[in-house]
Amino acid sequence: MHKAVQFGAGSIGRGFLGQLLFEGSYQTTFVDIDTALVNALEARGSYPLRLIGATGTQNLSIGNFHALLASDAEKIIHAIAEASLLSTAVGVAALPQIAPIIAAGLNARAAGGGGPINLLLCENQWHAATLMRGLLVPYLTSEALLSLDIQVGLVETVIGRMVPLSTDALRAEDPLLLVAEPYRELPIARAALRGPTPRLPGLLMAENFEAYEARKLLLHNMSHAALAYLGAPRGHTLIWQCAADSEAAQVVAQAMNDVCRALVLEYGFGPSTLGIYAEDLLSRFANRALGDTVSRVAADPLRKLRPEDRLIGAASLCLKHRIPTAALAQVIHAALSYDNAGDPSAVRLQEMRLHEGDTAVLRSTCGLEPASVLARMILGNKCDE
Fold this sequence. Notes:
Blueprint: E1 3-7, H1 11-23, E2 27-32, H2 35-44, E3 47-53, E4 56-62, E5 65-69, H3 73-82, E6 85-88, H4 95-111, E7 117-121, H5 128-136, H6 142-151, E8 152-156, H7 168-173, E9 178-180, E10 186-189, E11 203-206, H8 209-231, H9 239-244, H10 246-267, H11 271-285, H12 294-298, H13 301-304, H14 310-320, H15 326-336, H16 344-356, H17 358-364, H18 373-378
Parallel strand pairs: 1-2, 1-6, 2-5, 3-9, 6-7, 7-8, 10-11
Antiparallel strand pairs: 3-4
C-alpha cells in the first residue's frame, strides 16, 4: 500500500489534498499542531467533506488515515521513512517549524537506503522549492544531503480549490466537516519529480510550471482579492455578494481581461483557453452555497500589496507589455483603503497611511516610486500610459 504524510490538517490539507490522497488509495498520516483536531481525527478514522458546485452537492467520507501531533517526532520520522509521498499545506510562515522534522525523516530514509520520495509543496508561494531546500539543508546529515537533489523531489504545486473557513453552523453540524468547491486540478512542476509519479487524481504535469504559478497568482488570486477589496467598502461580507455587485464585477472583469492579455504575451497561453479559465473563475466566485467571506479573502493586505504579489505583480506585468492598468490601479487603491479592525495587517496598513502617507506606503510596501506610472494612477493623478 502506498503511504503519504500530509503536514497540515486544515482547509487545504483535509479539504483538498486529503481527498486526492484518499481517492489515490494512499494510507495517509496527517500531522498537525491542533491537539483537539488530531485526537478527533484519530478517534473517528474518517471525516466528512461536502463539495458544493453549480451542479449540486456531493457528500464524501474521507478515510484511510492516521493523525499525529507535530510534537510526536519519533512517529513522524517513522512515517516519513515508510512513505512514498510527502505534502505540506501549513502556510509559508510555518515551513521553518516543520523543516527539522521533515529533515529528520529524510535522514532516516537515507540511513535506511530508502528510495526516491516527492514532497509536494502546496503553499501558493513563488519559488517554494528553493525556500524549502534552504530550510532543510541545515538539518540534513551528510548522507542525506548528498542524496537530496537525486532522491528527494521538492515539487511546487498550484492550489486552485477554494475552501472557506469553517463556520459556527458547520461546526455545530460536525466539528470535522469541511465545505469546498469541487474544482480538483493540481498542477505540479513535472521537472522536479523524483521516482514514480504520484498516484493522485487531478494531477496536471506542468512542463512550464512558472506559467501556471503566474496564472494562479496574477489571475485567480488577483481577481479573488479584487472582489473582496472592492466589495468591502460597499458593505458586502460574502464573496458571492461582491461578484453579484455589477460595479465591482465590472472593474474585476476588466482587470482580468488586462491580465489575460499580459499572460498570453508573457507565457504563450492560448487566448481562448485563458478566457475560458477566467470565465470559470467568475462563475466559481459567484457560488453562493460556498459562503466564502470577504474578511478571509481580503486578509493580510500588507502581504497582498507586496511588489511581486497578486496586485502589484499583475499590474507590473501589464505595464511590461504596455497594457492599460486603470482597473488594477482602482483595485490597488481599494486594497490600500481596506480597513478591518479584526485584521492586524489591515490595522497596521491604515496606521502606516495615517502616519507616513500613501506615497511612503507605496514605496515601502509596494516597491513603487512616487513618479512611476502605476503609483500616480493609484493615487488618482492623470498620466499617460
